[in-house]
Amino acid sequence: MYPILLLIIFLNFSSPLFASKPGRAPLNHGQPRANRDCVSKLQFNFLPNQFVRGRGLTARSVSDSELEIKYALSKARKVRFTLLIDSLKQQLKKSNSPQTIINGLIESDTRNIAFHVEALLRLYIESEYFEKIGSKKDQARNTQNLTEALRLMEGLENNLGSYAEHVQRLDWLKLLQEKLGHNIVSDKKIAFFETAKKIAYAKLSKYLSEEGWIGQQQDRLRIFELFNSISEELKAIPKKKDRKIIVKGIARYIKKTREKKFDLQDLEKGIHPLRRHLRWINIMVRSANLFKLDNRFNFSDQFKDLDAGDAVKKYGGLEIYGFENHPVFIDQRPYLTLAQIIGILGTAKDIGQFEVALGEDRGLSQYLPQYINPIQAAVLVYKVMKQSDLLQILENQILEGLN
User: Residue 329 above 80 pLDDT?
Assistant: First the structure.
């Protein structure tokens, strides 16, 4: 039996019947379809063990084995929302104490989950698919549900993000005080930043209470009622049409970013928007539950003179949860380079915003261990991105999902 199986696998990989079409650039379009099918089948038996790896959802956020078992062998497209929403449910039901829930949301992977849900909602909303099917009443209800769910997830993500930024700024300031002394970084300055952090926490608590995230039974939360309805509508989308919505939506956003002009001399109008656009590309690709990394070619660090931190680890994961017959393979070289760029721009953005918060003491930021000049870093990585045609390469590979 085993020799026959090995022969079949060998023929699948080696037969000229499965070779790429003449003139096609395989690095820009992933692996030939026959190879993708074979790889998918070979990996099927290992999916339960690989379940918590990649795509940015840490083992902490999906640690319960019941979630692993529930979704490991499900069809990948059905897992997109359900894994994310069920992970959020797991976090919200850990305690009956509002204070404990708030602290749990801050410390867990909740903001990352919110990002991925937002990305999927945007793709379905912008496709206008639900505005064209069913009765006018159905169209209005479905569109309203998607829009309301997006509003709630955006609010959760924005408020968690605002608090996280204040925490980081206070931590950096304390680090500078420890390094430079109390004469340079006064206790009064520390107290000011601590007050700002408390205000951000109060705003987060108020938002979560007013929008019903806390203070009521978890199964009655508005967001989960919305997703119960949304999931039923998504099940009705034909698989081919669903794939087209996801692939075309991501490609369209990449093209939009590729054609957009960014003023890299301006933090809030150039560097921050550039980083945000690239980050959304990364999130959309990872949340699609359709793409896998092609690691046949070694990835080399393009930014050895800049500290990208753990960007490749943080943004470079790309795994499929559940079973996908036809995954789309993306060359890891441009994808991981994009992850590095996101990390470098993120540090540049954070440093720049910290300098604004420091006011007249902004020069102190240069004593941070992770300091990089925001404008110089942004100009450098943008130049690499444009010269390498990075986004065009990624766009071509994403569109391979239509074949």
Answer: yes
